[in-house]
Amino acid sequence: MKVAYICADPGIPVFGQKGASIHIQEVLRVLLRHGVEITLFAQRLGGEPPAAFRSLTIIELPALVGGVDEEARADAALDANAALLTRFIEAGPFDVVYERYSLWSHAVIGYARQAGIPTVLEVNAPLPQEQRRYRRLVRAREAFGVIESLVSDADTIIAVSRGVKGWLETFSGAQGKVRVVENGVDPARFSQRSPAADGPLTLGFVGTLKPWHGLETLVEAYILLREKGYPVTLSIVGDGPQAAVLKARLSQCGATGSARFHGAVAPEQVPALLASMDIGIAPYPQLDNFYFSPLKIYEYMAAGLPVITSRVGHLAELVSDGETGLLVAPQDPVALAQAVMTLADDPLLRQRLGLAGQARAQQHHSWEQVVKRIWLAAGLRLPEGAKHGG
To answer: Where are the strands (E) in the chain, listed by range?
Structure first.
């Protein structure tokens, strides 16, 4: 099977450290283990491919011009469809096209429909709405035109959550095509975690430090716990625009000494950092049409950490309150601090929740299972390939 994997998003370094980067890498790993021949078309590689990806054929797309002018960059990205399609045709033929949705790329799936090549469109977020809310959406008519074209032309559309599915189904061309396949984890990466040693409990967070991750709530809860005399430390893995504000707030309260910001780290460093934590926290704020499928929660669970997350969207289905973790009201530092105190006061509960979450991650949320679900949804047969684990 020859697959063209397309990521034309300049904001995603395919071999980088972002959650989106990890997602792409894990899907590619599974396909390669099954003996799939992959040509990767990428706008941004983010460094040299690791050894595991040496068998990929990689076609790096030309850098977008336009400088800091957002309209010019959007126009350049739209114009880049022609160059991508040319490279796709030259590198073919392909049996399957698999594209991760980006704001401006549409030409290959449109061509594949006419050529009779099966297509899978993976959609991770309602990008025009996200851009409008958190940044600035330029060329809005064109951006919505791209997604309308894609959902009409794609054979199968994979949404990573019910929230994404709901957004996609506002477009008539998506009706009957959308299947929800949530994100996953590689449980084997996290299988060596040791029980926590005596001493202060470490509260952990992994992810980009951006507004939609609710880090202010975690920091305020942490300050409350310190004020109540609970021996806790804070470990934040990741970087982003909120780092300076969070550090300033901790400094204001004299709590910086027991909080550590690791910054962005390589994916292979994450398991060891999770192994040094005692509780994994995903403090999402209240968001309309919650659409995330959080990699961090799957990783917390695979690492055997009890999880505390917000009762928003579909997270109550991912984290079972009192079984694999605890659910709290969003944007409520007091409730979050109380949940931490519950776990701090009951080591056996921490252990029970962590083990149950780990078992769930292993049994239901491996990347192997995710990719098989995607191929099944698309009506495609995944080659057996080399021997592989689930």
So the answer is: 2-7, 37-42, 57-60, 96-100, 119-123, 156-159, 178-180, 201-206, 232-237, 259-263, 279-282, 307-310, 325-328
The predicted model gives 347-369 an average pLDDT of 95
pLDDT per residue as tens digits for the range 3-58: 999 999 999 999 998 889 999 999 999 999 999 999 999 999 998 999 999 999 99
Whose CA is closest to 258, among 219, 297, 284, 296? 219
> Does one domain contain both 162 and 220?
no
Average pLDDT on 224-248 reads 94
Region 110-133 average pLDDT: 95
In a domain, 390, yes or no: no
Contact 214, 285 (CB under 8 A): yes
Whether 217 is in a domain gets the answer yes
Q: Is residue 382 part of a domain?
A: no
* Residue 231: burial class (beta carbons within 10 Å; 0-12, 13-18, 19+): exposed
**One domain for residues 220 and 280:** yes
User: Does residue 384 fall inside a structural domain?
Assistant: no
Q: For residues 279 and 324, what is the distance between their CA atoms, to the nearest angstrom? A: 12
Element (H, E) at 107: helix 107-115
Specify the pTM: 0.90
- DSSP states along 185-229: B-GGGGTTPPPPPSSSEEEEEES---GGG-HHHHHHHHHHHHHTT
CATH number of the CATH domain containing 115: 3.40.50.2000
Q: Which domain holds residue 132?
A: 2-184+366-377
Count Cα neighbours of 297 within 13 Å in the Cβ-side half-sphere: 26
Of 189, 215, 186, 344, nearest in space to 275 by CA: 189
Distance between CA atoms of residues 208 and 212, nearest Å: 9
Mean pLDDT of the chain: 93
Maximum CA pair distance of the chain?
A: 66
Q: Note whether 241 and 173 are same-domain residues.
A: no
Pairing of strands 2-7, 37-42: parallel
Q: Sign of torsion, CA 294 296 298 301?
A: negative
d(CA 362, CA 358): 6
Q: Who contacts 124 (Cβ-Cβ below 8 Å, separation ≥6)? A: 20, 23, 100, 101, 160, 164, 293
Q: Supply 9's token pair.
A: 């998003």
Contact indicator for 186, 367 with CB cutoff of 8 Å: yes
